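Forum > Structural Biology > Help requests

Title: Can anyone predict the 3D structure of Response regulator transcription factor?

Hi all, first post here. I have the sequence for Response regulator transcription factor but no way to get a structure on my laptop. I'd be grateful if someone could post the structure tokens.
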Amino acid sequence: MISVVVADDQLLVRAGLKMVLDAEEDIEVVGEAADGEQVLEVARRVRPDVVLMDIRMPVLDGLEASRRMLAAADPPKVLVLTTFDEEEYLYEALRAGTSGFLLKVSPPEQLIGAVRTVAAGNALIDPAVTQRVIAAFGRRVATKPPPATLAELTARELEVLELLARGLSNQEIASRLIVGDATVKTHVARVLMKLGLRDRVQAVVFAYEHGIVEPGAGA
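Reply #1:
Sure, ran it for you. Structure tokens for Response regulator transcription factor below:
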């Protein structure tokens, strides 16, 4: 059973999310919060697997709540609920260690899939917002010197990292490189392991921070 806390300042939004999630046999909403301070307290008390985190909330916004939550020991996975006009927050949320983004207008099946994805330890960025996230990185990130661990990547692994950072899915990378999906998954896993990264979201952060991809370059 995947336990979830829903954080949103709008009662109707929380009720809708709870209704959709509680209808699934393997998901249970174990808490709700209307502001950032409240979600920190609820998460400490019920220790959920996943927190659905709205960004714009009173008292303490979802971005700062995510930072504090993810800085604690054994934190839950945080899936940010976002709208298209919150692009400025996306970069900071990624750096805070959130597991990804989901648009509030997403269909119920996408929400359910996203909760399962992040609960399993994987990262997720809604395809509709991926390119906006990447564009935000290109405007905001100053390049850092590449770390020594980067030299451990093979030429093909570096190529996979570049494509991943430009927002391509495993299937799209496989098509671009003319290899199987399983091969791409293996390459992605090795890239994350060698660079000490948790997931694909961190790989995007890493690639832009260290100049592996050029802002504005096409995929």
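The chain has two domains: 2-138, 143-209. Residues 143-209 form a domain with the Arc Repressor Mutant, subunit A fold (CATH 1.10.10.10).
Shout if anything looks off.
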